[in-house]
Structures are given as C-alpha cells and as structure tokens.
Design goal:
With 419 residues, the protein is mostly beta strands. Among the domains are: 101 residues, no CATH class; 119 residues, no CATH class. Helices cover 2% and strands 51% of the residues. The chain is built from 2 helices and 42 strands. The strands form 10 sheets. Strands 1, 39, 40, 41 and 42 form a 5-stranded antiparallel sheet that branches. InterPro entries: 6-blade_b-propeller_TolB-like (IPR011042), WD40/YVTN_repeat-like_dom_sf (IPR015943). This is WD40 repeat domain-containing protein. It comes from Desulfovibrio ferrophilus.
Amino acid sequence: MVDVGLWNWEPGERVVSDVSGWADRFEWVEEFCVSPDGERIAAVVNKGDLQFTVCVNGEAWEGDYDRVWHPKYSPDGRLTALATEMAEWTLVVEGEAWEGSYAYAWGTKFSENGQVIACAVQQDGMYGWAVDGKPWETMYEAATDFELSSDGKTTAAAVQTVSFGQADIFTFQKGGYSCAVNGKAWDDNFVNIFHLSISPDGAHVAAEARTSLYDYTIVLDGKPWGKSYPCVWKPVFNPSTGEVTAPVRIAGKWTMANEAGPLWQPFFNCWHAFYSQDGAHLAALVAPEYGRWTIAVDGKPWRSTFSSYVGEASFSSDGELVACLGKDGDVWKIAVQGQIWPGKYDMAWKPVFSPGGAHVAAKVERGGKYTVVVDGNELPGGFDQCWEPAFSPDGRFLLIRAVEGGKYVRRVLPITDFK
C-alpha cells in the first residue's frame, strides 16, 4: 500500500500548473487526470498532423504517437498511457514505452502499491495479459474479465479454450471456456466463465460459472461448488478466513451463500458483495422490496432505501461503518450507516473514509460545479473540475485537487473547515 504519509500535508493552497494556456499551445487538449498526491496534472494533447503525446504540468513528453489513450496514474504516482504507432499498441510509463507492442492493448491495472503495471493485450488474434511489458506465454482466442491481484503477482482472465464457429451451438453447450491464471487454464471447461475474484494473498481464484444452459455455480481454483443455482453473481473472498461467498438465486429471490448453502434471508436482489478489512462483516447491495435498494450488513438491511441506485459502497477501516451512494430518481445522495446526508446532487462519487472512520468525504457535482462534502458539510463555492479527496494519515487534513479559473490547485484543508 502506498504511504500517503510521505505526501505534503502542510495546510494551504498552491497553484501547481496554469492549464489555461494549454489549449493555445496544442490543437486540442483532452480530459485532465491528476496524480494521487496532487503534485501533477496531465492530459493527452494533439500537436497537429495526427501527432499525440501527453502534457504533464505544462511539459510535453518527448515521444509522439499516432494516438494516445487512457492516461492513468499508478498508486505510486507514475503516469501511464496507452499509445499506438504504425498500428501497434503499447503501454508508455513516464514517457518510456514498453519494449513489446501489440495489435491492441487496453484496461490498464496496477498492484495495490503501484509497483506492478499490467494491461490486456491482443496479438495475432490471441488475447491475454501483459505484465510490466511481458505477455502471457499462452494466449487465447478470446479473453474477458481481466483481474490482477493486489500484490501484482497473479493475473487471471476468463478465456476460450475450445474453438467453435458462431453457429456451433452443440460445441458451445459442451463447454469451451475456463479461467487462466498467469496464463495457465484450469483443467475443466464450462459453458461460460464470468466475473473473477482473486484472494487477497493472490493464491486462489474464484469465478461465476455456467455449467449448462440453465445451471450456474461458483468455481474455486477449478473446482465447482457442490450446489448449482438458476443464477449467481461475482464471488468474494473473506480476507481473514479465505472462505468464498457469493450472491445466489433461489426460488426467484437472492441471498448470500457459501459452498454449504444460503447465509442470509432472501431479497428481491442481492449483489456486489464486499467484506470489511478484517473479514468480520459481510455487506452487499440488496433490494428488500421490489424497486427499492439499500445496503445489507451481515444480512440486515438498512431502513433507508433508494429508488434508482445504490453503489460505490465500502467499509471503514475498522469495519464498523459502511458508506455508499444512493439515487432517488435523478437525485444523487450519500449515506453513511443508513443515515442519508442532507445534500442533493446532480452527481456524486465514491465516499472515502478517514483512517479509523471518524470522517467521510466525497466529491459531488451540482449545476455544473464541483466541490467536496465532509460529514454532510459542503466546502463553500465550487470548482470547474475536482477529483476525489484524500485524508491525511491522522485524519486531521483533507487533500483537495481542483481546477478553478484556468489553474490547477492543490489545497490541504483542516477537517475543522467543514462545519
């Protein structure tokens, strides 16, 4: 995990870069992205004559490409982008391209500490992972649901292992898909494989599997559960015990289950399950009644519900609180432990807990202006652009990264300012 204590937490505001002049220097400037520590702002820029590069704090990378796509900072602050030249794609890290190139590359992912960088690639009609510039030794004619372990040592994807034509329904029903882990496929095939999960230690992989046209189950390291269901959703690992649980459908309703069977009461729907860091609590998005959505923790739903959406949920580090986004009609809201904050927004982003869970912050948008809200209290004014906030290790300060008046500013504020 990246040590945010190494970031600059001195209170105050600093203009990092005047971005107002970028549009005059380049043919066009694409969407900005900002480093986690707030020290750098970047964007893909076009220099004319189909020459693309990346501009960082006003300085362009030396290399030019036919196209640059998906700029993204790693957790440790390195800037990456996908780039193509002469119809070959590669990943560029801090202006340096990987040695290998591919017919296509997409979906950049990072290890938790940012030291490992990977992306999905296709070459000669075959698909797989490339990790730090090295592709899987075995590639497949189709691959989806790419996952990277938190330590970066394990890659996995749902892959096609049997060739068949588009109308060959008989071969399809026999099963032609499996899961490949670090390039090696499981021994058994399935009708379909979806939504993989890798255990926190990177040693195990679980997935949704379709064992016939009508039966679904969870597969762990290639071994299916003993029970089948009309449908299942993405499995999750308990970070403490390693047990696998997943939402499953039974008699027209949904619940959480492990290999032995159901764990919770049934709901109209139940999905996007997640554990607290210590594995003591299990939560999921549920519909306790038709058309109403909320969070259930250890099988107990919140009383507050939403009509359109619930998501972007997470536990506090101590596992005692859950925060999420909710939507009623077109109005976005933020809820913590079932209590809905008073603010109503045109858009909101995933809430962030302070270390220990004493405070919650989120980026929000209303009327085309962006700001940050902490514990239900909004920062006065607004920004032209804003990124998700971050707490200092002691939870006393908040890092705000924003563009206002053509300038990208890095601001560190005491939590006491949000009252």
